[in-house]
Amino acid sequence: MIVTPLFVVTGKVTVDDDIIFTHRLQFVRIAEASQIVIVPKQGAAPGAQRVLKIVADVIDTGIGGDAEITFNLDGDLTWPLVETGLDPETKAKVGDKGQPDFFLGLPPLPADTAQPSFSAITDPLHFVGSYPKALDGGDGQPGGKGSKGARGTNGPILEIWTTEIDGDGMKIDLRGQEGGDGGQGGNGQHGGDGQMGSTAVPGTDSTWIGIPNAICKQGPGLGGDGGRGGIAGCGGDGGDGGNGGVFKLFYTAGVNLNKITPMLQGGKGGKEGPTGEPGKGGKAGPAGANLPPCLPALSSADGPDGRRCPSGKEGGISQPGIDGADGNTFEFGITALPKIPGLWP
Fold it and tell me: Which end of the chain has fewer CB atoms < 10 Å from its terminal CB, N or C?
């Protein structure tokens, strides 16, 4: 409990207690808007509902109408003169990228390629396959789906007990935080390249009268087909928006309720994450070398590129987050404030 005759708010004043008991709550603008920022209470369990109760005979919101009570419960850094870090102004954390996530870069860094993948440069001893068809390249593995964005932080519960509100007014900004966007899907793996077909084998034979005759003992082998590219990982689902907070105002007769503007809307759901990149299909292995009188072999097929992931609400795998629920305002007329004996009349 914070007990003081005068509680002055200049700039961002963080409060990690659950009660402020004061004779006068004074907001003073100097270089920036004067704000009470509700932060987590020390020792509380993570995610516990945050409650702040303010009992003040007089609340003077100062000049300019930019006095505010808001919150920062997710630990983001705040800076002077800007709104960074305050939960109603920020988004929850973006989801992690999907795993596996295959590297699809360009040389000199080698891309992630499925095995087997045949190359005359890196593995000349195994580049040529056997008859009638060489080995196909391996199919690329799919990328993983991105993880769901973090849920937006819920607004806290705020109680204000007062007999007088002066000044140009004050905002109670307990809007739920926007949900984090889903993580990007992982990249699909490239398909492996096919093996080269075997070389043609010519030979000789004799006609029935003993005349030598050129023949094809074994035609050139077909090259191996290229492997399929890996399917792109779907983006993660968007995080749900945080719920708006609850504001309770206890006031005596004559208090100008128009001096306070509650903002308690639920946070928007986060967007679904972007899809990863699909892997490229592997190249078909070349047909075996032809030697007369054999005929050239047919061509083998390149592997197809991987598919992208459909997204969106209508049938998509990745979904946006759900908007948080709006908060509520409650107003109660009272005859007197609670007192702490011996402090002030």
Answer: C
Q: What is the pTM of this model?
A: 0.85
90: number of Cβ within 10 Å: 20
Cβ neighbours of 195 (radius 10 Å): 30
**Model confidence over 24-82: pLDDT tens digits?**
999 998 878 899 999 999 888 877 889 999 999 999 999 888 899 999 998 887 766 66
Q: Rounded to whole angstroms, how far apart are CA atoms 35 and 66?
A: 8
Greatest alpha-carbon span in the chain: 135
CA–CA distance, 276 with 146 (Å, rounded to integer): 9
Query: What pLDDT score does 69 carry?
Result: 97
Dist. CA 94–CA 270, nearest whole Å: 9
How far is the C-alpha of 28 from the C-alpha of 7, rounded, in Å?
11
In sequence order, the β-bridge partners of residue 165 are 59
Tell me what pLDDT residue 83 has. Answer: 64
**CA 98 from centroid of its chain's CA atoms:** 10
Length of the chain measured in residues = 345
pLDDT digits (tens, 9 = 90+) for 221-255: 999 999 999 999 999 999 999 999 999 999 999 99
| Pairing mode of beta strands 260-263, 67-71 | unpaired
- Strand 212-218 to 2-9 pairing: unpaired
> Is residue 5 within 8 Å of residue 344, measured between CB atoms?
yes
Residue 35 phi/psi, 5° resolution?
-135, 135
Query: Quick one: DSSP state of residue 76?
Result: -
CA 328 centroid distance within chain: 29
**Cα-flanking dihedrals φ and ψ of residue 177, to 5°?**
-75, 145
pLDDT at 280 (0 to 100): 96
Using CA atoms, how far apart are residues 173 and 280, in angstroms rounded to an integer? 49
